Amino acid sequence: MSSATLLSSSLALKNPSFHFSSTFSTPFNGRLLKNQLPCPIRFPAVSLRCYASSSGVDRVRVLNPVVEMDGDEMTRIIWTMIKEKLIFPFLDLDIKYYDLGILNRDATDDRVTVESAEATLKYNVAVKCATITPDEARVKEFGLKAMWRSPNGTIRNILNGTVFREPILCQNIPRIVPGWKKPICIGRHAFGDQYRATDTIIPGPGKLKMVFVPENGETPRELEVYDFKGPGIALTMYNVDESIQAFAESSMSLAFEKKWPLYLSTKNTILKKYDGRFKDIFQEVYEEKWKQKFEEYSIWYEHRLIDDMVAYAVKSEGGYVWACKNYDGDVQSDLLAQGFGSLGLMTSVLLSSDGKTLEAEAAHGTVTRHYRLHQKGQETSTNSIASIFAWSRGLEHRAKLDQNERLLDFVQKLEASCVETVESGKMTKDLALLIHGPKVSREFYLNTEEFIDAMEIFLFPDLFPIRPRARAVYFIGIFDITRATSFPLPLISCRLRSPNLPHFPHIVPFRSFSSSIAVSCSGFSSRLQKFTRTAASLPESAGEAEESADFVNNLRLGSMFGVWYLLNIYYNIFNKQVLKAFPFPTTVTAFQFACGTVIVSLMWALNFHPRPNVNRSQFAAILPLAVAHTMGNILTNVSLGKVAVSFTHTIKAMEPFFTVLLSAFFLAERPTFWVVLSLIPVVGGVALASFTEASFNWIGFSSAMASNLTNQSRNIFSKKLMVHKEALDNINLFSVITIISFTLLVPSALLLEGTKFSPSYLQLAANQGLNVSELCIRLLLSGICFHSYQQVSYSILQEISPVTHAVGNSLKRVVVIVSSVIFFQTAVSHLNALGTGIALVGVFLYSRAKRMNSKPKTL
């Protein structure tokens, strides 16, 4: 397969028309085509997805082969999708393919399974799709020659390794054990014990003996087990030192690689010799080879009783490797998977004792129920994450063996994109059920193919960042898309879908000749629902189009930041002017929420944003946010009425301090050393600014501090809502909070300050020199700016990372402080300016410290 760069574009819109044209100038199917072929298409509701590949950019070259073991049923379907969309387009990879599908295993008398395991020993890396282990019903279903053994068991015996399972953490997927903040990697000794035992039914009274006959001719050892007085059962099981030692080696190798502590659990107090042997061998291996290495990184190995270890696991926060005997590992791995959320969010690797050979697979089965639906042509929503991570963990091992940094970078971006996709709210039904409950509606999850397509949207920009002097197809505009470009394409593939039409693909293969395609779209209605553009870079010689697209996108985002800052400046100026003339913060805040309620109602009525359906449980979850939001804005207005705008915002620079404090108290989030260190200039700067502030007022100072507390409490409630009841996007969540806040605040405003806003009071104030009409205009403008700047802030947050948004918010505070000082001619001493500056630098350092700890957890 030749090197290629991919481009993907997605559109969802109402009643569009598409016009495709392609001009050919070279032979095709024996004919010389020189004409242009136009193709206009119109549908009532269409989602368009276009892919294009262009030669000229090298894929990541993988130096050594990888063994691929194909599987069965629904996992075989998604395995193919993953290869075609997420692996092969980006990697120049030599695959040693083995079909472990049940029919091929039957045709080869299961020899193919043995051959695949032997190839894994040769090439050291294998990726495996889920396979069927036949029972009597399966033998009959497929007409098999025999009830073949589990291919996983066969492979484990040949590789003589340990199976390690580890959760994939997504912050928005709730965990049954909420205290598990870090992954727990569980290692199962997949040899011997109950799984190789000999059991029997005892028919009646008699003695059960266990006999060992040495090969060297020594006297046999005979042990009396039990004197049966009646019918019963018996079992004899075994293990071997060589396998236990390999188990210890691979467990310690993995723990050292991860720099995590290692625990071995047994019941050696009961099985003093059997389980005691596990304990002794582990201790010997640790003392001889690993103790010094572990201590250098402040990690350790420890043996624990299985019951004690289970109790510890439930109350711990995770972050360790747990080595289990065969049966314990079988049971506890499923417990961990469910505790962390889902078996579909679990990696599984088989690692040899020397740490050199690895086979990665999905931890779940072949998803037979979904396959039956697929066979009937019905829609499925099958979670492909574990299968994607089977590829990524196998390729990661290949990258480490080959010291291939480009491949390792690809793997890390693939896993991060997978987690980001889920955390953005795009997921399959099994995960949506964990968030929304058993009555989850179709709008909250994607089908099997849509999820993998959604992953591409996150993966493409990471793999192919837009570069100057590169060409890509791009679109400009929201309601009018008119610009297009053309480029040589060896392959074009388009899929058109519609909610009211069946899925149908249009594949147009153009090979061995040069073609150009121009795409233009028109006829957009005002009900445009979604527009997503993702482009990958093409060869530098291709042109300037992408440079222009990059410039336009940066210009648009920069403009949004400018509007955000400008609206914030005007809000603070108008708000201060109003509160100075009309010092009634509850009424002012209520009026600002009233403006927001009107804007939200218009937004929904004109269909600029879909109106949410809020049920009772969602309302109960949102209500604490609304209360905290209301109190935060009242307290901010109290402060603005008492002290200078610049001083209020200097005090509000203390927000990171309250964020860390409340997160530690309510969410059990332990701050890093760098986060704590960054809080020192924040607290010190605010203290210095407060001591030297000319307009200092205890009410203004206390209310600003209290607003920090309520605002960060709102953020804590928001995090809990995101984990447990996520159903609204950011804009709708803010809109609903605005309406609730207005409803809550109106009675309080009327009760506390209502008489102050009566016509008679305003007339009296006017007679005393207050310009009532100007006051009302500025109050209206402050309300509009108040709601608008927060809406713009949420819109920006949907396009950039939260940490980048936090940095932008820090800069916004600088802009507001400087502009208010200039506008109101606020007196500022040198020490006061120094304190403010130190606090703002601390906020910036806090953002940087948080950024250091903000990467997706995919361990």
Automatic annotation (TrEMBL):
The chain crosses the membrane at residues 586-606, 618-636, 731-752, 814-847. It is an enzyme of class 1 (oxidoreductase). One of its GO terms (cellular component) is chloroplast membrane. The keyword Mitochondrion does not apply. Its EC number is 1.1.1.42. The keyword Transmembrane applies. Its cofactor is Mg(2+); Mn(2+). Keywords: Magnesium, Manganese, Membrane, Metal-binding, NADP, Oxidoreductase, Transmembrane, Transmembrane helix, Transport, Tricarboxylic acid cycle. InterPro entries: IsoCit/isopropylmalate_DH_CS, Isocitrate_DH_NADP, IsoPropMal-DH-like_dom, Sugar_P_trans_dom, Tpt_PEP_transl. One of its GO terms (molecular function) is organophosphate ester transmembrane transporter activity. Pfam families: Iso_dh, TPT. GO terms for biological process: isocitrate metabolic process; NADP+ metabolic process; tricarboxylic acid cycle. PROSITE patterns: IDH_IMDH (PS00470). Residues 65-455 form the Isopropylmalate dehydrogenase-like domain. NCBIfam families: nadp_idh_euk, PRK08299.1, tpt. Belongs to the isocitrate and isopropylmalate dehydrogenases family. PANTHER family: ISOCITRATE DEHYDROGENASE [NADP], CHLOROPLASTIC_MITOCHONDRIAL, NADP-SPECIFIC ISOCITRATE DEHYDROGENASE. This is isocitrate dehydrogenase (NADP(+)). It comes from Cucurbita argyrosperma subsp. sororia. The lineage of its organism: Eukaryota, Viridiplantae, Streptophyta, Embryophyta, Tracheophyta.
